[in-house]
Every structure is written in C-alpha cells, then in structure tokens.
Amino acid sequence: MHCRAHAAQLRRDENQIHATGARIVAVGTGDERYARAFIDDEDFPYLVLLDEDGAAARAASVKRGGSWALAGPRSIIQATRAYAQGHRQKAIGKRPTQLGATFVIAPGDEVLYEHLDRDVADGAPLDQILSSLARALD
C-alpha cells in the first residue's frame, strides 16, 4: 500500500514535477501481470519498468527490509493512512521485502537526488524531489 500511496502523491503533484521538464518513471518488483494491476488500480499514467530479478535494485543499493522495516509502528501508522485513502494491496510482488527508492536522474545519467527508503513508509519527500529538480535548472 505504501508504494501505491507514494505513486498517488506523485500523480497529484505531477504538474509541479513536469513544470521542471522532468518525467516520472516507476520501477516495479513484480511481473508484468502485477505491474498491469498496479497501473490499472492506481490509474498510473507513467512508464512502469520491471525489475523482476532485483538486478536494478541491487545495482542502486536499494535495501530489503526486515520485520521492523516492514511492520514496525511507523509502517503500520502509514499503512492505516494509505488504507483510509483507498489504497489496497491486492497481491504481493516477487520481492515483498524490497524497500523503495526515489532517484532524480539528469540527462547523461547524473544522479541529482537519491532517497533510499529506511522502511516501507519512507517515501521521498516531494519538497526534496522538487528542490533537486530546481537545482538542475540553475
């Protein structure tokens, strides 16, 4: 549910992101069927790439979570909020312990911003994403 809530936040704030010339791309941990369900359920209009074997996550040093990162108090509180907002996780991807990450990558593959989630509820703050995009425009 946390990834779905984060995707919904990005969709809500897409005008601010797109105003910088950036575009949103998601990388999923499941297979094509799982990604299709995510796209349809969340009305997610952006490109979704698949990292079925975890190679991209490993290359980017994105961690996997233990029980505290997956079901600690912070995660449970955020899951309750996500559920109240209407987000549902109907299926579990191939790597259910995979934590998320957010990257802002400029042309030429320059990483302008990196946020590696500490737990499942630790999505990158929009203000930090926008700040890194603004710096890229300067």
Would you mind describing this structure in some detail?
It is a single chain. By secondary structure, the chain is α+β, with helices and mostly antiparallel strands. It has a single domain (2-137), classed as Glutaredoxin, CATH 3.40.30. Helices cover 45% and strands 15% of the residues. Strands 1-2 form a two-stranded parallel ribbon. The chain has a two-stranded antiparallel sheet with strand order 3-4. The longest helix has 12 residues, at 73-84. The protein is globular and about 40 Å long.
Which tags fit this structure?
two-stranded antiparallel sheet; 15% strand; 138 residues; alpha+beta; globular; 45% helix; Glutaredoxin; 4 strands; two-stranded parallel sheet
| CATH superfamily descriptor | Glutaredoxin
For the record, the CATH architecture stands as 3-Layer(aba) Sandwich
CATH topology: Glutaredoxin
What is the gyration radius calculated from CA atoms?
A: 15 Å
How many helices in DSSP terms? Answer: 7
How many structural units, i.e. domains? 1
Query: In the CATH hierarchy, what is the class?
Result: Alpha Beta
Give the overall silhouette.
globular
- How much strand content do the residues show? 15-25%
